[in-house]
Amino acid sequence: MSGTAEAADAFSDGAFGYDTFKVRCADAAYRLAPLAGHFVTRIALDSLGGQDMLEVAVGDGAGTLEATVRLGGLRHLAISKPAEIQDCFVERIALHHLPKAPEPWPAGTAGFARRLYGLDELAWLRIEGPAEVEAVAAEVTVRIPGSPAGD
């Protein structure tokens, strides 16, 4: 195995002390950012065995699925959609890492930060447009069909 491949494996395994959840959030944010200009095609909320899960599918508006975001261990969920809106156009999609306290959280978390104080690190998903989705969860997975990365 080459030194570069070994370093990549160690990085993904956290062998160098990197925060792997933070890295996964950064990777998810990078993969989701290009989906601005697409549409939310499905939002599903499930509860199975005491575990809440949110799944948001984003497509091109012509029926092609571009990505699925799954958030497990939900701590906060808000959906705002005016009645006259039929299509959920995505103006901006972002995913932020929320570190474990006492590390500071990004601006905009004031509405739910007090409720979540003391929990482990979390992921904060924001989808902005005429309809908005905001969720905070303990687990995040992004699936992009045809992507070699998978998750």
Folded structure, characterized:
There is one protein chain. The chain is an alpha+beta fold and 151 residues long. It has one domain. It is 21% helix and 42% strand. It is built from three helices and seven strands; from the N terminus they run H-H-E-E-E-E-E-H-E-E. The protein has helices at residues 3-13, 20-32, 110-116; strands at residues 39-48, 51-59, 65-80, 88-89, 92-98, 122-128, 132-143. It has a seven-stranded antiparallel sheet, with helices on one face. Strand 1 (39-48) and strand 2 form a beta hairpin. The radius of gyration is 16 Å and the shape is globular. The relative contact order is 0.21. The model is unreliable at 1-17 (pLDDT under 50).
Question: What is the number of domains?
Answer: 1
Number of strands: 7
Principal-axes geometry comes out as globular
Mean pLDDT: 80
- Major sheet details: 7 strands, antiparallel
- Report how far apart the termini are: 24 Å
Alpha-beta classification? alpha+beta
Helix content: 10-25%
Give the strand order, joined by hyphens, for the main sheet. 4-1-2-3-7-6-5
Order of helices and strands: HHEEEEEHEE
- Kindly estimate the percentage of residues that lie in beta strands according to DSSP: 35-45%
